[in-house]
Amino acid sequence: MTLNRRAFVVLFPIVLLAHIVGGGVGYMGYRHALITQHVARLQQNLSQLQNAYAEYASLDSQLLYVVRNSSAFLTFIDESDAEYRTRVLGIGVQDSLLSLVPNDGTSVSCSIFQSDGRQIFYFDNGTDPFETLGPRQAAFAQAVLNDDVTSRSGLVTEADGTTYLVMAAKVQARTGGVGIAGPRPDQSLIMQVSVRPRRFATIRRTMAREYGAPVELLAAPPASPPELSATVQLAVGLYARETPSPAYLRGPLARFAVVTGLCVVFLSLLSVGMLMLLVRRYIIAPVEELDRQVTAITENRRMDIDVPDVGEVGRLAANVRMLHGQLTRSLRQVRQLYETDSVTGIGNRIYFNEKLDQFFHLSVTTGRPLTMLFIDLDNFKQVNDMHGHRTGDALLGGVASALSEVLQEAIGASGTMGIVARLSGDEFTALILADSRGAVIGALIDAFLLKFRGGFRVDAASYPVTASIGVAAVPGDAETSAHLFWCADQAMYHAKAAGRNTVAFYADMPRDADAPEWSVMPAERGRATRPPVRQAAGPSG
Amino acid sequence: MPCAAIVPALLLSALTPLAARASGLNLLVWEWGISPDVVRAWTAMTGVEINQIVFDNGDRRDLLIANVNAPIDLAVVDSAHVQPFGDRGLLLDQSGLPLPETSRSDERSRAMCGRYGVPYSWGNTGIVYRADRLKEAPRSWADLLKPAPALAGHIAMTDDQEELLAAALNFMGRPMNSGDPEDLRRAFELLRAQAPAVLTYGLPMTAQQRRDIKGRIFIGLGATGDQKTLNIGGGGRENWRFVTPREGAMVWTDCLVVLRRTRDPGLAERFVTFLAQPENGAANAVFLHQPPPNPHAAALLPAAMRDDPQVYPPPGYPVIYRGPFPTDSLPLRRRILSALLAIHDAQ
Fold it and tell me: Where are the transmembrane segments (chain A) (predicted)?
């Protein structure tokens, strides 16, 4: 998993959770504000309803008061002749009533009931002259007549759904005074005025339509009203409560939830994007850069690591750099030990093989000539046997030093490249990017052979050893590095056969029918291209 | 005749306290319901003023009569309303009033007025219209109750429920004083359909005096003699006509009654006797453009008036005499009128 993905997997759930919590808190806050706002609006609407009720209640009581105190009414109730009362006096009560009714379409009715419950007068100013007092309004009057009250007002809704604001009062027959409380006093009449509160009904209807639930009329305030609900008192023992249907706020809340959800997702993505940008810039990018540099080092495309700055990544880079340095040094030491001959201190067979391939490739690709010297010490075994291995090893070290020295002298002036190595026992070699017949090679061979003249000297002692040198070169002698090795080896044997302490060029060697020929089967060429490594590097015969 | 000046004076007189009129007789009467010449003659002869208290609605007139505090000595009352007041003890019995033979009305009129009233005038309910506005004279209640579109907004109907329903019931072929709720329902439907075309509910002769109505009434519900009052303000042009609908002449008889509460019954009865004299009856009939109930007075009328179909119902037309209205139908009748007013106001 990449660092980017890790960062995303870590950040996104946290950011999303934070935004969901934030969105949830926002939703709850919005819901609370919405409910508060709608409760205030409900209160406002109910206040209008309350005002409308108060206006109609006021009209009701004015009508009741004025009519019951009018001479027409007093004359009417004082009249015992029912026919005369109806024929002549009824119109007076009607006029008293109409003189007070506002000319705005307000529907009003007036009824008078005798103490025996019989209705003796009814008039309304409506447009249907055949309409009679509704049974529930009549029952309201009867209840006042029967109950121990002097007056009562309230809302009465008839079966057809029409609501009336009704006010009924007991009136003393003959005198018109306030009626006697108590059930059915013989001397009391009931005068009842009903107003059809159109505005009140319209507000109720409008509220019911708007809120999806009717305005309830209650005898007592609700003990534990719902969250979205409002109540007003219309009169003593009469309350109006509106509780909107559950669906009323569902729409706006659902819309807000959707918008909030989208915002949560959008803001989460935006926040994660910004965080990812910052994390990438300040955390991932330095780590990636370190990774790139380490990768480049492992792929040998760069040598060192840049330490960006202080901080964890800087310290990590510094540590990696330090580790890399230690590893490089250790590797160099290992490599040096691996490629160095422990007896002579010059390159061993492994080193030689690597350099042979390298120089051969360089020669092939650049066209520069490559010459290999295969050197074998003559009579070294006798020295070993006579003076011991310690002396032998010292002699081998002296030869290696001499070889290195003459090589450096030979190539020093020309500026070409060359190496020396001990192949095994008393076998040495030198590889020089130079023409085998040129001055460099010639000077090197001469200077080297000169070291053996009169015995080879080590620590003031002289030992009777000489060197046989085989020379092979490309282009000319060999097609592969192994072939070159083989050619030099053959030339060295030719030099030994020619009497030792001499040099032989493979190119000058006669092509003897009995001499072994370089041949490698195609299937074995890969293996044959690299000469076998001899394990023992000590002096041998 | 200083008619225009008299009207507000008469209207004000209804509000004048009793003490201010203690010297005269207070007469409750239709507007323009008595000849000023006859009144002047009475005053000249007796020195007693006649204070007229006018009404234009039978129900309100009855209320005034019933109100014992209302200072009324005499009243002109429709014959159908006399008996209840008499029975109630509000009227003086006139059956013993010593009237000479020449002052006595015909038997039918006397029977209609009963013992508590003396026949004063008679006539019938019909249609008043402006001859200069209508191309053809109306002939049926249909011309008023189902008016042509051109008459919409030019109709005046009375606000007296008896007259209003009488016209509708008569048009429907039903008794004018029917108490049958079904009759009244149909009559109401008829009048409700007419309501959008009605300019005002009020006697044409009263409504005509309103500034916002004046000149806009072309046709209306009226009674014999109303054309005379309507023409008073016409500047000499007698454009108003009265016509009896062909459905029939609904005859009413107005009676002169003396209220028991009068402070001077003798003087009041003297005035009744004075008006019953043929000469005064004839003079009053000429003024009212209404037939006198006294045949001796009728004989004194100009021949043109005796033959005038605006005064006497045209021969051959059905005659329906007004009778008492069932008491139990009165609340409904009054509510029909109230409903029509409410419907009209809502328009």
Answer: 256-279
